[in-house]
Amino acid sequence: MRPPQIVALGGSLLRPEESQNRDIWFGKLRQLAVHVEGNSRKLGIVVGGGLPAREGIELARNLISNPDKLDQVGIAATRLNATIIQQVLLDIGCNVAPVIPQDTGAAADYLEEYNIVVMGGTQPGHTTDAVAVALARDCAASDCIIATNVSHIYDDDPKTNPNAKPFFEMTINQLTSITGVDRLAPGDSAVVDPIAVSIAAKHHINIAVLDGRDIDLIEAALDGKDFDGTVVRS
Ligand code: UTP
Prior knowledge:
Layout lengths: L4 E5 L9 H20 L4 E5 L2 H12 L5 H25 L12 H10 L2 E4 L8 H11 L4 E6 L20 E3 H8 L14 H10 L2 E6 L3 H8 L7 E4 L1
Parallel strand pairs: 1-2, 1-4, 2-3, 4-6, 5-7
Antiparallel strand pairs: 6-7
């Protein structure tokens, strides 16, 4: 049987500016889950912390200086968001694990029993990007999809440099030279978490980065079709 497929869903995707977009997005996510199950495939979904993570870390930052403790606040938010996705998919009758696994080994075990497993963060020191790549490793999957709110990996920050160029394909070494290898501070964002990149490089996991606001892109990537985004070869 083919290994499960792994998708990291950035937490910002759950809270778009327009609530109407949110309803459409959740509707299409449900359709995607049904489509994956209908094709007898398995799916591990790792959900980011988004707004509650940023708010919680901001609130605690003035009181707590230890980064591991602030990361725990972020992890709690990722599990909140994971629970929302888990319950939405359970509600339409998908075969979803009834728990939010706390580590990727347990999640890989649940994927043997259930079609879909939803989880959030695991330990301090990285983001859910790294959790998703570690889950791919533990499931013997060769690819990990990172669905975020940018369309591609760029050679510079497109928000500050209008001439930044998107990559359509790149090597993991090129990505490492952009992200570096250092741990992100609690609540900090990067196009891909450096720790995720180092796990992918070590275990030869390819990464696809795409704009998860468009569920069709996630579906195309899962179906092995061409999609607009960046493929990182490891
Ligand atoms: P996220 O994974 O949500 O960060 O974790 P992100 O990728 O920057 O944001 P999204 O994808 O847009 O939501 C939020 C915070 O939770 C802690 C870190 O502090 C991180 O910045 N965290 C998360 C951990 O410490 N460990 C984990 O496994 C996951």
